[in-house]
Specification:
The structure is a homodimer of 406-residue chains. By secondary structure, chain A is of the alpha+beta class. Chain A has twelve helices and 17 strands. Bound molecules: N-(aminocarbonyl)-beta-alanine (2 copies). Chains A, B: Belongs to the peptidase M20 family.
C-alpha cells in the first residue's frame, strides 16, 4: 500500500507553484512556472534514485531500473501543465501517483523484473499552444516534431523557443523508446463516480473528439433604422447552429457530447447588428461511427442554414482524434487490482482526452479514475478527496506490479 | 445655396483622422483621435470667425453672432465620435453641414437677427461609454454630469479623466444656454429613402429605445466528461433569449426593432462549457405603449426561461428614452425649405437615436435625413452621395434662416 499522506503532501507542494487566489493553479505549458514545477518533480525523482531523460519535445522520463533492463519499461504518467484557471489535481495527480508508487517500492525494497518509468508529457492542456496533448502526440507520431515546434501562443512565442528557454529541450528523439504497458491515473473531471458513490473508475475507452471553427458572415448595420426583414444578422443565424450542436449530442445518448465554448462577435457593439460571428464547436462520442454521424448531421444542418438564411457560413475541422478503446490486458489489470484491494468501482468512459490515448498507439494502455468534487475540473475550485487519491494510487501500484512482475 | 464641394472636402479631411483600411473611421469618444478631430473642427470654426465655448461634459458650441445677441441662438449640430467600425458621415455630416451653412452666409455677407450656433456633442455613439448621446443628455438634464463622469470604458478609464486628458473639459455648466430652435442633418442610416428614390427625409419622430444588460450564470465544466443532462450551459440558455429578442420585434411591425449586438462568454475556452454569458439587448418602437409591451414580453420570457432552465438570469435596463415626436414648427420649416428647393421628399421615422431628441426637450427641434448607400451605417463601408449631402445642407440653410430671420 502506498503512503497517502506523502502523496497528498507532494500534490500540495507542487500546487504552490502558480497558486491562484481562488485555490487553483495557473501553470501554463513552458512558462517560468512550468520550469519551476518540472525542476521540483525532477528533483524528487533524483532523490528517489530515478534516472531522468528528456526528449526533444520536453517529455520527461524518470526511470527505476528493473532486474532485466532489456525489458521495455512499464510506464505511468500524465502532465503538470494546467489550464489558465485550472486546479491542483488535473494531470499533477497522475505524475505524483507514479512517483509515489516508486517511493513505496523503495521503502519496501521491492525490485521488479521490468523497469518502471514515470513520465510527464509536455503541454497536455493545449491552452497556451495547439495541438492539445502535444508531447504525447509527438511521441507517438500523431503529428511531427516540426508541427509542434512551430506552434505559437497568442503573443507569438513558439514552442521551440520556449522549450529551449526553460531548458527542457532534451536530446532524445521522441518515440525511440519501447514501452511494455502504460497506465495513467487521473481525476474523472466529470460527475459519474461521485453520483454513483464509487471510488475507482475503470476506463474502458476515451471518447473521440472533433473540433471545429465556424464563421457566420452577415452584414453589420445600425440596430435602429434597419427594418427587421432586411437584416443579415450573423448572431441570430449562429444561435440556431449553437442550439443544433446540443441537439445533435442529445440525439446520441449517453456518450454524445456537443459544446460551443468560445464565441467572438464583430463588431460587438450594442447598437450594431452583428456582421460576423466566430465560434468553436466540440463534438465527442465514444463510438466513431456515431461521431461521424454527428459530424455529418452538423454539416447538413449548416448547409440548410446557409441556404435558408442566405448568409455565408464557413466551417473548418481544426482537431480530430478517434475514440480510443484501451487494451483488455491493461483494463483487466486495473479491474483486478481494484477487486483485490476491495474498492467500490464502476466503468467510466472518459469524455476528456488524455496522454494515454497517444501512448495507447504504442503499447497496451489503461486508465484509473478517481472522483472529483461535484465533477468539476478546468476550474480553480477543482477538488478531490485524499482517500480517493490514495485508493487510485494503490490500484496503480498493483496494476503496474502485475505487468512488471516482482 | 451652399458649396457642396467644400462640404465634401471637409468631410474627407475629417475622415482622415482615424481612417480604417476598409474606408471607414474609428474615432472613439475621448480618445487621442477624438481630440485631433475636435481640434480640426474648432480650428475651422475659428477661421470662419466663430467664437468657441466648451462645457463641462465637453460639448463644443461654435457661435456666429446675430444682430440681436440677446435672442436665443438657432442651433444645429451632431457628433464627431464614431463607432469602432464606423463611417465617414454618421454625425460628422451634421456638424460639417452646420459649418458649411456658416461659411456660405459669410461668403454672401448675410447677417441674421438671431445668433447661429453649430454644436458637436460628446460621445453620441455610446460605444466606448454608456449612456449613449451623453453630451446632449447631460445638456438637457436627462441624466447628471456626475453619472456621465463616472462612466468607464472596458479598460476602466472614466469619462472624467479622459475628458481632462484630451483637454476638452470646459468651464460652462451644461444646459445654461437657451436655444431658439434646433436642427440636425444626418444620413438616414436605413434603406427607406434609397428604396423610395427620394433625396430628403423629413423626420416626424425618433423611435424610443430601451437597452438592457442580460447576464446568464451557469456552471463552467469540462466539455468532454460532463453528461449533456447535467450541464448548466449559460450560452445555450442565452441563445433562446437572443432569438426571442428578434421574435418580439417581429410581432410589432413596422416599427418594432430587436437586436443583440454585444456578447461576452466566460471563460471562452473551446473545451469548457460556458459558465457565464453577458449580452446586450436593444428594443425600439416609435410607439411608447408598444415599446412597453415589448419590454414586458421580454421580461416575461426571461422569467419563464429562468424557471425552465434553473439558471440565474439577471436583466437590467441600462438606457431608456421614449419616442420623440419633433416640433410642428421645425418639421414644418424643413418641409417648406425642401418644397422651395424642389427636392423629392418623404417622411422617415428615425430608428436611430440622435442628439436632437435631447435638444427637443429644451427647444423646438427637427431633423433632415439624406440617403446613405444600401441603407448601411455603423459599418466602415457606410457611404453617401455628394449631391444628396449638398441637398440636405441646402435644406438646413433655409430652415435655419427661416427661424433666425435675415
Ligand atoms: N484532460 C483534458 O482536459 N484534456 C484536454 C483535452 C480535452 O478537451 O479533452
Ligand atoms: N445615430 C446613432 O447612431 N445614434 C446612436 C444611438 C442609437 O443606437 O440609435
Amino acid at each position: 500500500r502506498i503512503n497517502g499522506e506523502r502523496l497528498w503532501a507532494s500534490l500540495m507542494e507542487l500546487a504552490k507553484i502558480g497558486a491562484t487566489p481562488k485555490g487553483g493553479v495557473k501553470r501554463l505549458a513552458l512558462t517560468d512556472l512550468d520550469k519551476e514545477g518540472r525542476d521540483l518533480v525532477v528533483g524528487w525523482a533524483r532523490e528517489a534514485g530515478l534516472s531522468v531523460t528528456v526528449d526533444q519535445i520536453g517529455n520527461v522520463f524518470m526511470r527505476r531500473e528493473g532486474r532485466n533492463p532489456s525489458l521495455p519499461p512499464i510506464m505511468t504518467g500524465s502532465h503538470i501543465d494546467t489550464q489558465p484557471t485550472g486546479g491542483k489535481f488535473d494531470g499533477n495527480y497522475g505524475v505524483l501517483a507514479g512517483l509515489e508508487v516508486v517511493r513505496t517500492l523503495n521503502d519496501q525494497g521491492i525490485a521488479t523484473e521490468a523497469p518502471l518509468e514515470v513520465a510527464f508529457w509536455t503541454n497536455e492542456e493545449g491552452s497556451r499552444f495547439v495541438p492539445v496533448m502535444m508531447g504525447s502526440g509527438v511521441f507517438c507520431g500523431a503529428f511531427s516534431l516540426e508541427t509542434a515546434y512551430a506552434a505559437r501562443d497568442t503573443e507569438g512565442k513558439s514552442v521551440r523557443d520556449e522549450l529551449a528557454r526553460i531548458g527542457y529541450m532534451g536530446e532524445q528523439v521522441p518515440g525511440r523508446h519501447p514501452i511494455g504497458a502504460y497506465f495513467e491515473t487521473h481525476i474523472e473531471q466529470g460527475p459519474v463516480l461521485e453520483d454513483a458513490d464509487k471510488v475507482i473508475g475503470v476506463v474502458p475507452a476515451v471518447m473521440g473528439l472533433s473540433w471545429y471553427d465556424c464563421v457566420v458572415s452577415g452584414m453589420e448595420a445600425h440596430a435602429g433604422p434597419t427594418p427587421m426583414g432586411l437584416r443579415k444578422d450573423a448572431l441570430q443565424v449562429s444561435t440556431y447552429i449553437m442550439q443544433e450542436v446540443v441537439k445533435i449530442a442529445n440525439r446520441y445518448p449517453p456518450y454524445g457530447r456537443g459544446t460551443v465554448g468560445m464565441v467572438q462577435v464583430f463588431p460587438n457593439s450594442r447598437n450594431v447588428i452583428p456582421g460576423e460571428v466566430k465560434f468553436s464547436i466540440d463534438l465527442r462520442n465514444v463510438n466513431d461511427e456515431l461521431l461521424n454521424t454527428m459530424h455529418e448531421e452538423m454539416l447538413a444542418f449548416i448547409d440548410r442554414t446557409r441556404s435558408d438564411s442566405g448568409l455565408a457560413i464557413a466551417i473548418e475541422r481544426v482537431s480530430y482524434y478517434p475514440p480510443c478503446p484501451f487494451h483488455p490486458d491493461c483494463v483487466g489489470a486495473v479491474r483486478e487490482a481494484t477487486a483485490k484491494l476491495g474498492y467500490s468501482t464502476m466503468d467510466v468512459v472518459s469524455g476528456a482526452g488524455h496522454d494515454a490515448i497517444y501512448a495507447a498507439r504504442l503499447a497496451p494502455a489503461g486508465m484509473i479514475f478517481v472522483p472529483c468534487k461535484d465533477g468539476i475540473s478546468h476550474n480553480e475550485i477543482e477538488d478531490a478527496r485524499s482517500d480517493h487519491l490514495e485508493a487510485g494510487c494503490n490500484v496503480l501500484l498493483h496494476a503496474m506490479l502485475e505487468r512488471a512482475k516482482i
